[in-house]
Design brief:
With 191 residues, the chain is mostly helical. It is globular, with a radius of gyration of 16 Å. It contains 9 helices and no strands. The chain has helices at residues 26-36, 38-46, 56-66, 86-91, 99-116, 121-130, 132-142, 147-159, 165-186.
C-alpha cells in the first residue's frame, strides 16, 4: 500500500456483533481461551489506553499476538503490542517501535485486509498472521473463499514445500484463536 493511499480503518463495533457467524462453537472458544490465558490478556487489554474505542476484532488480535503486552519482539522480528512487521509499518508510513504507531499500523492493516476479504474476519486474521500473499495463493488454489477449502490449499502448499508444516499449523489455528478472544471480548458465544 503506497504511503499516499489512505487505507480504511477498523471502525468501533456497532451495538450488534458483526462477526457472530464466524465465532467458533462455545466449547472450542472456552478451551482455546483457557489455553491462551485470555483472562489475563483481556485484563491487560481493558487497561490499554491505545486500544480504547477500537474494534473488538483488533483487540482480539492484540490478545493473540502479544497477550496485551507492549514492547515485545518475537524471534521473527515482529514488534510491539500488535506484533507488526517492519514492512507493514513502512507501508503505512509509521514507526512500529512507537506504541501508538504500532497499534495504528495494525488497525490500518487489519481494516485493509477486512476490505480485501469482503469483511471475512477468518481470512483477514489468517492473512494478518500468515501474510496476504500466502492467503491469496491459497484462495486462488482453492478456487473458493470457504475456509475449509483454503485450509486444504494451505496443506497442499506444505506438500510442495512452499509452506512449512509449523507455519501451516500457525496460520490454520490463528483465526480460531482470534475469534475465541473476540467472543470473550464481546461476551457472545456460539452455541
Amino acid at each position: 500500500v503506497p504511503q499516499n493511499t489512505p487505507a480504511p480503518t477498523v471502525s468501533p463495533a456497532p451495538a450488534s456483533v458483526p462477526y457472530q457467524q464466524y465465532l467458533p462453537p462455545t466449547p472450542v472458544a472456552v478451551k482455546q481461551n483457557q489455553k491462551m490465558g485470555t483472562d489475563k490478556a483481556l485484563e491487560r487489554i481493558s487497561k490499554e489506553p491505545l486500544l480504547k474505542n477500537t474494534d473488538p476484532l483488533l483487540q482480539a488480535v492484540a490478545v493473540v499476538e502479544s497477550g496485551g503486552k507492549r514492547g515485545l519482539t518475537s524471534p521473527t522480528g515482529v514488534k510491539g503490542l500488535m506484533q507488526v512487521t517492519a514492512a507493514t509499518a513502512r507501508d503505512y508510513g509509521l514507526d512500529r517501535d512507537k506504541p501508538e504507531d504500532n497499534v495504528k499500523a495494525a488497525e490500518l492493516h487489519l481494516g485493509r485486509l477486512l476490505n480485501l476479504y469482503d469483511g471475512n474476519p477468518i481470512l483477514a486474521s489468517a492473512a494478518y498472521n500468515g501474510g496476504e500473499g500466502t492467503i491469496g495463493e491459497a484462495l486462488e488454489l482453492a478456487g473458493s473463499s470457504n475456509w475449509p477449502d483454503v485450509i486444504e490449499a494451505l496443506r497442499y502448499s506444505v506438500t510442495t514445500g512452499k509452506l512449512s508444516a509449523s507455519k501451516y499449523r500457525e496460520i490454520v489455528e490463528y483465526p480460531t484463536k482470534v475469534m475465541s478472544a473476540y467472543s470473550a471480548i464481546v461476551g457472545v458465544t456460539n452455541g
